[in-house]
Recover the amino acids of this structure.
């Protein structure tokens, strides 16, 4: 590729307009602050929208770059699950957000669409306590199984200590081998 | 000339097929799973790690073996979790920078730059040109040190100890420069919101040129020691293969993705910090195996050195920080000699620079792939949320699939080529 010859994808404004044209009311809100195209959708419709975003020609987001969450304690819905998508063929990025209430913290798992979702969603479960329905392997990932609570929630005290657990036999933790 | 052969592979984007002349590349060393015979009764469960002598980094593999064949592999990470993301919410925006040093601690400058760029995106700051060029130079030096560490350790682990220590020696030459510029070798904390802490001293360009000369000479030796080395080749080639589709689905980036032949480099696709001004190639592999990952990294070192040389040419005198009292500390002269300067300093240190309410995601090309920072501000002097998108975390997620069907001994080179850095993977 020549110097400065980056492929130019849709601008954030165009991307949002395309999303609104394709999904209509299913896009609950949108903005492009700081040049990042962002759309908000509801969790019930998420799987269909993500499948279209991955495969449909104007979008073709073949990379699930990141899945994370933000805890807006005191706001309703309390959590936001944040997905960052990137399209290699189109060279554009999109942020998709889903509001998740505190009382029923779940969203659908994206593992059927992207393999990257597996560990990223495990981390969100571990850190925020948000369940991913249909996740094939919903274990904690960074913390240990005996850990109580979800440390990145805003109401988890930063200086809280938990007792060390004795070493356990990894064969007995209930992980199923796919043999 | 051996140096020529390294460069030759870098110039065309594709890797020459008959690179290791004389060796037939077998179609695959992977054994198809599930096995045809009923092997379940002989399956053995073994834990490898978390403190295994050949895995640099604390990580555990829960393995199911049929003889020496890896039938299933569960990778367990998290041993180095230090609550990076929780800690970022406790201090000011500037106080996060020392934490970012401790993400990928082999190339801390790239983390510094990535975080600074993300916050600057949120604030709408464009740093002066000299600062951009300095950030490019320091990022590329870090990329070279990171690749040298990865390759040196991987070579060491498959028995090529000489090449390993040669690469560590080359890394040392570059870390001397990092030390001269930033004052530290690992915990550099070099960037600030809106600039860098200090300018290059006048002798730095000459020292960099000298160090690059050393690195090139050492790499030429390592090329002779490794690239056509039969043992090294047999250990690396056709091992840990992943297809391009799988690599994309797993969200792999960096050398892991490019070894599959997928051309994605953040520096090219979505240039930041003025990378569009520099001329460099993106080395691509074809097979997606460990040997291609090795070649991609070797060629990227040469490309990085090429960028450093261009950037040193492009370095013009000028400020290295923006001139904006909302973000940048006053000069010490003013702090010590005037009450306004002292108050300014005090307010910035105690309350932190106010970052406008909003959210931003900034990706940079880390040594292992796309390193992303997603920052959320509530308008105060403290971050509401800082999320790191760690490239090697996703590499580790794919590792289990890369290992299935290979031998137990293949775990070591494959894991080495992922270049898992505990600080970044576990945060």
């Amino acid at each position: 590729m020549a110097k400065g010859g980056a492929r130019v994808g849709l601008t954030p404004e165009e991307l949002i307009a395309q999303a609104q044209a394709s999904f209509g009311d299913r896009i609950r809100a949108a903005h492009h602050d700081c040049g990042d195209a962002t759309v908000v959708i509801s969790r019930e419709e998420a799987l269909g929208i993500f499948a279209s975003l991955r495969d449909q020609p104007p979008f073709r987001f073949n990379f699930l770059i990141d899945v994370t969450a933000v805890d807006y304690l005191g706001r309703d819905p309390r959590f936001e699950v944040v997905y960052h998508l990137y399209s290699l063929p189109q060279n554009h990025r999109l942020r998709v957000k889903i509001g998740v209430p505190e009382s029923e913290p779940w969203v659908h798992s994206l593992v059927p669409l992207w393999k990257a979702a597996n560990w990223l969603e495990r981390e969100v479960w571990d850190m925020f306590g948000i369940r991913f329905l249909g996740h094939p392997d919903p274990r904690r990932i960074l913390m240990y199984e005996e850990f109580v609570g979800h440390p990145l929630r805003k109401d988890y005290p930063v200086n809280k200590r938990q007792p060390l657990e004795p070493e356990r036999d990894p064969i007995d933790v209930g992980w199923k081998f796919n043999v | 000339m051996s140096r020529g052969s390294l460069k030759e592979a870098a110039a065309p984007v594709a890797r020459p097929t008959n690179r290791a002349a004389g060796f037939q590349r077998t179609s695959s060393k992977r054994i198809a799973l599930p096995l045809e015979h009923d092997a379940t009764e002989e399956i053995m469960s073994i834990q490898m790690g978390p403190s295994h002598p050949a895995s640099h980094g604390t990580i555990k593999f829960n393995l199911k073996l049929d003889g020496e064949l890896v039938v299933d592999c569960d990778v367990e990470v998290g041993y180095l979790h230090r609550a990076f993301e929780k800690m970022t919410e406790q201090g000011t925006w500037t106080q996060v920078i020392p934490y970012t040093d401790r993400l990928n601690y082999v190339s801390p400058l790239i983390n510094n730059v990535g975080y600074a760029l993300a916050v600057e995106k949120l604030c709408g700051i464009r740093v002066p040109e000299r600062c951009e060029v300095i950030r490019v130079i320091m990022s590329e030096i870090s990329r070279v040190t990171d690749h040298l560490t990865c390759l040196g350790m991987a070579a060491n682990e498959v028995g090529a100890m000489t090449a390993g220590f040669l690469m560590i020696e080359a890394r040392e030459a570059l870390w001397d420069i990092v030390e001269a510029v930033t004052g530290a070798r690992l915990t550099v904390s070099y960037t600030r919101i809106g600039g860098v802490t200090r300018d290059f001293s006048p002798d730095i360009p000459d020292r960099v040129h000298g160090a690059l000369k050393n690195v090139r000479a050492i790499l030429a030796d390592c090329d002779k020691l490794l690239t056509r080395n039969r043992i090294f080749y047999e250990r690396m080639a056709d091992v840990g293969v992943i297809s391009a589709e799988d690599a994309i689905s797993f969200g792999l980036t960096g050398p892991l993705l490019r070894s599959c032949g997928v051309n994605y480099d953040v520096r090219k696709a979505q240039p930041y910090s003025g990378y569009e001004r520099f001329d460099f190639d993106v080395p691509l592999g074809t097979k997606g195996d460990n040997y291609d990952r090795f070649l991609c990294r070797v060629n990227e070192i040469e490309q990085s050195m090429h960028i450093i040389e261009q950037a040193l040419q492009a370095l013009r005198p000028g400020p290295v920080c923006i001139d904006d009292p909302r973000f940048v500390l006053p000069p010490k002269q003013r702090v010590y000699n005037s009450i306004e300067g002292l108050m300014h300093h005090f307010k910035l240190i105690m309350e932190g620079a106010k970052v406008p309410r909003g959210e931003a995601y900034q990706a940079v090309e880390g040594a292992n792939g796309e390193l992303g920072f997603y920052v959320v501000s509530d308008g105060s002097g403290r971050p509401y949320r800082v999320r790191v998108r760690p490239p090697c975390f996703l590499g580790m997620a794919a590792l289990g699939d890369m290992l299935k069907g290979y031998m137990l001994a293949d775990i070591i080179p494959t894991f080495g080529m992922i270049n898992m850095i505990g600080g970044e993977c576990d945060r």
Notes: Strands of chain A lie at 29-31, 38-41, 63-71, 79-87, 92-100, 106-108, 131-133.
